[in-house]
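Example for tutorial group B:
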């Protein structure tokens, strides 16, 4: 993780603790296996454990804490969302998509295993995410479990992450310029919807009042937009060693990004505006949400 200012030390510690706890949860929820399916389990574990910022999982934990949700309950939901995120990365890295060889500083799943295993690992991670959310151990109230599954499916499906990936592929194939609003919608679907759900999931777990739930969803939506612009800035300005993955690929592939459309200074200003907007949504939560405010600043200041 990046070196944060001293004022944000609490965020650094909290994110490190969350990442460690989420890895332990994933270790239990995707245990090593024996027999013919062992290779699939190995690939699932390789894809989902031991790396990444765990931003989405941290959001679940910290937003759930606002409503005094038990840590174990929140951890199962956080792990499920990280499984689904890992599936999206495995498939995104495939030769038929972005064709990447490096992810989180190590070979991508289709390089470490093979393409067919990578496809199956992604499929299995997605299925397992919903299985975990549907289990009574995740929440005693079946209505809460249904709401979690329904909202995650919406965030990941054709009007969410998958829809955004389709728009991204079509834009790359067309090769023509996109307008700012079109790029914003593409990024909202591909990246923002899952981050928005991660923030709202904590409120769902806590059966929070509608006002609080809407505030956290709005926070996640603006945070996701700021985070994606920051990712595009890193792709344009960081080295592969800093980023832990291949950089400069957006420009090389002719991808539609706000950095490419607006230029570095204006894109950076846009990410800062969105981060401030995200933090403003937390006013209804008071001082208890200070770590979430710090996260909005971290999202645009990070170097990987």
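The residue assignment follows.
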């Amino acid at each position: 993780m990046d070196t944060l200012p001293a004022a944000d030390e609490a965020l650094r510690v909290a994110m490190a603790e969350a990442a460690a706890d989420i890895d332990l949860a994933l270790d239990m929820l995707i245990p090593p296996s024996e027999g013919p399916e062992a290779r699939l389990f190995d690939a699932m574990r390789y894809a989902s454990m031991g790396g990444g910022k765990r931003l989405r999982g941290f959001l679940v934990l910290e937003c759930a804490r606002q409503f005094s949700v038990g840590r174990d309950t929140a951890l199962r939901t956080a792990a499920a969302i990280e499984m689904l995120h890992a599936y999206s990365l495995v498939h995104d890295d495939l030769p038929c998509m972005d064709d990447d060889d490096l992810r989180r500083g190590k070979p991508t799943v289709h390089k470490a295993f093979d393409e067919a295993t990578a496809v199956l690992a992604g499929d299995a991670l997605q299925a397992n995410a919903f299985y975990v959310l549907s289990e009574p151990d995740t929440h005693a109230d079946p209505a809460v479990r249904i709401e979690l599954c329904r909202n995650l499916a919406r965030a990941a499906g054709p009007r969410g992450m998958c829809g955004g990936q389709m728009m991204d592929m079509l834009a790359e194939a067309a090769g023509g310029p996109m307008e700012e609003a079109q790029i914003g919608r593409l990024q909202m679907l591909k990246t923002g919807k899952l981050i928005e759900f991660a923030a709202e999931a904590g409120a769902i777990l806590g059966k929070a009042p509608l006002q609080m739930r809407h505030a956290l969803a709005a926070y996640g939506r603006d945070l996701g937009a700021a985070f994606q612009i920051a990712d595009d800035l890193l792709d344009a300005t960081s080295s592969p060693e800093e980023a832990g993955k291949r950089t400069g690929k957006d420009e090389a592939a002719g991808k539609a990004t706000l950095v490419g459309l607006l230029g570095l200074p204006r894109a950076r200003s846009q990410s800062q505006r969105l981060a401030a907007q995200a933090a403003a949504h937390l006013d209804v939560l008071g001082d208890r949400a200070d770590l979430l405010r710090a996260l909005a600043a971290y999202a645009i200041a990070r170097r990987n």
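The chain has one domain: 6-301. Compare this with the pattern of hydrophobic and polar residues in the output above.
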